[in-house]
Amino acid sequence: MTRSTPLAVGLAVLGVVFIVIAALYAFGVLQILVSDPSSPHHYTHMILFIVLAVASFVAANFARPKTV
User: Which of 3, 15, 20, 51 could bond 65 through an S-S bridge, CB–CB 3.0 to 4.6 Å?
Assistant: First the structure.
């Protein structure tokens, strides 16, 4: 498997996007996208996006070329 800098950058950007979405769920901005908007903040969605962000950052670390 070849290591790719553009892939690593793309995964890191995706991780940042997931962090932003998690913050928006935490502050209740994205409540209109859930089935019951009158319910309290959907922290489970926030946790899901944080886990996806961490997974993206880990994948970006494995995808980046290593210098010796």
Answer: 3
The answer for residues whose C-beta is within 8 angstroms of residue 65's C-beta and 6 or more apart is: 3, 4, 5, 8
**pTM of the full structure:** 0.81
Looking at residue 28, its pLDDT comes to 77
Answer positive or negative: Cα dihedral of 29, 35, 38, 40: negative
**What pLDDT shows up at residue 33?**
62
The Cα–Cα gap between 36 and 50 comes to 22
Q: Where are the domains of the chain?
A: 5-63
User: Rounded to whole angstroms, how far apart are CA atoms 9 and 61?
Assistant: 10
